[in-house]
Fold this sequence. Notes:
Helix content: 25-40%
Distance between the termini: 35 Å
Number of strands: 30
Radius of gyration: 26 Å
Strand content: 25-35%
Structural class: alpha+beta
Number of helices: 19
Amino acid sequence: MYRHIEDCVIDLEKHGHLVRVREEIDPDLEMAAVHRRVYEAGGPALLFENVKGTKYRAVSNLFGSIERSRFIFRDTWQAAENVIALRGNPMEALKHPFKHVGIALAAFKALPRKSSGLPPGFREIRISDLPMIKSWPMDGGAFITLPQVYSENPDKPGIMNSNLGMYRIQLNGNDYKLDQEIGLHYQIHRGIGIHQEKASRRGEPLKVSCFVGGPPAHTLSAVMPLPEGLSEMTFAGLLAGRRFRYSYVDGYCISHDADFVITGEIHPGETKPEGPFGDHLGYYSLIHPFPVMRIHKVYAREHAIWPFTVVGRPPAEDTAFGALIHELTGDAIKQEIPGVQEVHAVDAAGVHPLLFAIGSERYTPYQTVKQPAELLTIANRILGTGQLSLAKYLFITAEDQVPLDSHREEEFLQYILERIDLRRDLHFQTNTTIDTLDYSGSGLNSGSKVIFAAYGEQKRKLCREIPEAVMNVRGFTAPCLVMPGIIAIETNTFHSYEVAAKELRMFCEALQAGGGLPDCPMIVVCDDSRFVSGSLSNFLWSTFTRSNPSHDIYGVNSFYEHKHWGCDTVVIDARIKPHHAPPLEADASVERNVDRFFAKGASLGGIKLG
Length: 610
């Protein structure tokens, strides 16, 4: 039971899960570079004791492995899992009331506990006193990457009608007045966005408190997709094994457990440029107007520790974070969407762009010819549910004699490609919403979606060699086999959609004239076919983060009929386009500079790097 983050640090160090970095380190790129190396090596949590420009220590990689996360929550995990399961199936409690008394009691004991005034040991500081951590060279400034952003419903104030979310916070740079303003990046469908809309309608500023640190359970609670009616504050207490303690000072909620608290107001209509920021898709999210928060007061606990993470192209620490959330929520998606067996947000593709799903197919059991029917209903439900609605590509099938696991990604994709009827089973949604961080679409938040639905008997054996027809198309070179049934091939740098349409129409016509590709259902046109085919991770990342289905999918022998589009072989244009955000690249000189931390006798000299 951790009261503060320092309790967790001491516990992790005692059990060999944490290493102290004694040497002075620069928060401008160096801390992030060290973090990435240690994470990639499967290394421990890191406590930076001597951060340049601040007196505060910083900790990272707390959640860098699922094993370490399980260790952190070892005493409270089961109780939290039980409460979530019960919320998803309330009838279970009615059928077996005595069996679930302990669960109800655990949830009751986790209710927030109100006090008065500032907690002992808190003192007022400034934003500029904090560790100003910048992760990537083109970032617009220093960011908070593990905040707990607290807001209340203006129509129903109080902690039980609050929202605790994790939205990145820009501390300096751009047009922000240092120590007076910070930037909050969030979208309107988030809980805080709903609160801000209500406050703006009333003509009032929204009071916001940003908590940093405290028990690790509070950080996890800020990103948990909790069942309706289960408050993040209650869940925070449940997972921490200790009630969330709070008070109000100057009208702002103050977490008594946090290491740092930033309070301030968001005024109606006030925005400032926020970004760029190296994000979890592996690219920079660019500069856009987002809400600006006017600082009221900033507090720090005595001996406070600043937690942070570094995001970038997966896998990263948030990969383990996501696995932890999936393990805790378990089968919640099954309760939310009838007929769903599992939904897998593919981490290698940046989570949001690509979903693999397994559903049920029970609509027409009397028909001898099997084809997707119920799967299409389920697919639309998936693409209309929470953050799953941000996906661009959904591959869905149903088990039929062969046991399936969507997390075995190559096998799952092969299963679908062996069975899909590309003339019937592609379904597009155009001019719709996608992830704000995804720049492959037609504008901010704007893009398209496509469903690949497959069910029934195997229709084809997938090619395991480069088909002859692909080898001889003028202007297209270096074909490589990505996996059975999928070829990557290079062509000219992308110029415009008008030029691309001509190039790929000629490519598809040439393939059709050469007899088609009956055993090769997918071709990826790219800038570097050797990179794309180099690993499954490379293929998933480059193909599905660099394409917009409505604009970038072409087909061999394609057709329109009654507004339905189909083809014999799908061709995806996954070249980098001029409007795409730049991919993340580390600074070579910084990478050389941080070698000193891993030298013999240095704090991290004992960590074996890959």
